[in-house]
Write a structure and sequence with these properties.
The chain is of the alpha/beta class. The protein has eight helices and twelve strands.
Length: 240
């Protein structure tokens, strides 16, 4: 659990969201304008900032840009009614780690907040294990069921990004940003090809996924447990 700085001037959104975060054990500070948001970030050292864009005193874009110049490490999740593609591109481009549009699904928002906080607190772990897949980030080694496999650089980075947030659906935009360090403008051919190659090397299947599931219209998720009917890795089909 951690410290959440919630920057939202609409109390009809801020109050229930703050209650939900506190029920999960977080320490929540709510501020209602841009200048106070920066002051609070500087003095309290939050583990994450959840930031609206339409704020009095200073727009959320400027808050994020200023915070990023001073502190590149604190995760920022933009929560805004501005749902146009260009607004999302701008928000991610000035340093936000994630972007959720209003109205939002509470469970999904909580999952994204947890994922960002987990990434911020873990740093670079010695190894990550999900199911029988083990990734060693520093050594750049991967094994499945105890057997080493060889991945290209981008395949490795894609697998690492998915496994760091296992159980959480990662949007295509976020994967493009984290793995290719670019913004997604519509075509996902590069991502799709790498997912296909990665599945093949893991012994996974697109139609009956054990590890990497496609969430239609959203993105990809690394499963924290195999489906009940999943076959052993050696028997898995390799369809893409």
């Amino acid at each position: 659990m951690g410290r959440v700085l919630l920057v939202e001037d609409d109390l009809a959104i801020a109050e229930p969201l703050a209650r939900a975060l506190r029920r999960e054990g977080h320490d929540v500070l709510v501020v209602e304008d841009g200048p106070r948001a920066l002051d609070a970030a500087r003095t309290t050292g939050p583990d994450i900032m959840v930031l609206d864009l339409g704020l009095p005193g200073m727009d959320g874009i400027e808050v994020c840009r200023t915070l990023r110049a001073e502190d590149p490490r604190t995760p920022v999740l933009i929560l805004s009614a501005r749902a146009a593609e260009m607004d999302i591109v701008v928000g991610l481009g000035i340093g936000a780690d994630d972007y959720v549009t209003k109205p939002f699904r509470a469970k999904e928002l909580m999952a994204r907040i947890r994922a960002l906080m987990r990434r911020g607190s873990l740093g670079t772990p010695t190894s990550i294990t999900v199911q029988d897949v083990v990734v060693e980030p520093e050594a750049r080694k991967v094994s499945v069921g105890g057997h080493p496999i060889t991945l290209s650089l981008k395949e490795f980075e894609l697998l690492l990004a998915l496994m760091k947030d296992a159980g959480t659906t990662m949007t295509r935009e976020r994967l493009m940003r984290e793995v290719w360090h670019t913004h997604w403008y519509g075509s996902s051919k590069t991502l799709d090809m790498h997912v296909s190659w990665l599945r093949r090397k893991l012994g996974d299947s697109a139609t009956k996924p054990r590890y990497i599931s496609t969430v239609r219209g959203v993105g990809l998720r690394f499963e924290i447990g195999p489906p009940p009917s999943a076959e052993p890795v050696g028997a898995a089909t390799t369809g893409d």
